[in-house]
Amino acid sequence: MIQFPKDLEDFLLSYVKREFYRGTRRASFADRPFIREDLLFFSKGVADLSELFTADRANLQSGYLNQPQFRAGYILYFLPINFAKTRFVLDRFPEKFWKRKTYRVLDIGCGPGSASLAFLDALKKKNPSAEIELVLVEQNANVLADAQRLLRGFAGKLKIEIRAFPLWLHGFRFQGEYDLILMSHVLNEMVKYSAQERSEWLLPRLQEHLAPEGIVALTEPALKRPTRELMALRDHLIEDKEFCVLGPCLHDEVCPMLAATRSDWCHFYLDWDEPEYLQALDRMVKNDNHFLKVAYVLLGRTAAWKKSLPRGRDTYRVVSNRMQNREKTEAVLCGPPGRLTVSRLNLEKRKENSALDKVRRGDLLQIQGWDRKDFEVGRTLRLSPKQVLKILP
Ligand SMILES: C[S@@+](CC[C@H](N)C(=O)[O-])C[C@H]1O[C@@H](n2cnc3c(N)ncnc32)[C@H](O)[C@@H]1O
Description:
This protein is of the alpha/beta class. It folds into two domains: 2-308, Rossmann fold; 315-392, CATH 2.40.50. Helix content is 34%, strand content 26%. It has ten helices and 16 strands. The strands form two sheets. Strands 1, 2, 3, 4, 5, 6, 7, 8 and 9 form a nine-stranded mixed sheet that branches. Strands 10, 11, 12, 13, 14, 15 and 16 form a seven-stranded mixed sheet that branches. Helix 2 (36-53) packs across helix 3 (68-90) and helix 6 (195-209) crosses helix 7. The structure holds S-adenosylmethionine. The site of S-adenosylmethionine has 22 residues, from helix 3 and helix 4.
């Protein structure tokens, strides 16, 4: 269960009030505690921004954060949500990543710093004595200033140096090597570029600037179009085998979901302890964020990571919800032999296959007693008594 840190929540609420009431008729409210009336005041910006991000994406202009009500709405509402998504993704990094003495991190399109804040939170728990150099790139100078203040406020005792570049990312010169490159909810805003063009921009930069044991974490809104574009970008980035996928995929073949379907997109659910003020905001704007949906890809250099990834050919990621009716239970899996729809008649339920009644999207499921050497983008398997299913930790 992902937690949004209480100290960050308190800091964020007082920051939003100080920053956005200053110079307005509400200036005198800036120093009192954050109350429901403040939430109501900011909820209009949240509702409009939320509409823009989902139903109205075609009208999403890159300048939306120039409007203070959207910037405030973003910080109050989308920052904690994207923080939680990045935290979920960081928890899926190989443990080895958290053992370094220093980290050079690049956060591209950092907004108010949601992803970097999640990284600092992970580091506080996993490696608090590490030294961090954090490079922020963001075209909107105001939200970049927010990011710097929020990150400094939250860093506490961490040893951190922040360098901020108010630039469009095409104008940013990558320098040196980065241990971590974060792009959280940015790619889909590069509306002028296709997946191929984004890849042609990103790939040479990764080749040159990702540290030998570095990791790239790409997260996108878990909506159909941006996620399928992310799946296509993943295919392009790993095509020449210099990079491999560290998650969620368990193989480096083409994405079978992208190849075999037109309507599915690879996404997962995360369980988080949603802050109370956010639940209240949700009620005001009629949203529900009890469970968050996340779409992500983690990449690293094949030379550094491939051998250390535990990838039995019999292990699959569950990439659908469990589908159950009176007759049968089914789930779609993705693993080294490809995409596999596993089904079992309820009459044939037995101890060996009962894991199918518990699997959840995102779980790792091992199928013992069934092996395929080749890769296929679509297969079905009706479980026989010989096959044993196991949900892996
Ligand atoms: C949806 S926000 C995501 C912010 C943050 N990464 C997060 O996860 O909350 C997208 C951010 O990317 C920035 N952005 C979009 N396209 C950009 C570009 N080409 N160059 C630099 N920044 C860009 C926007 O200004 C915005 O702050």
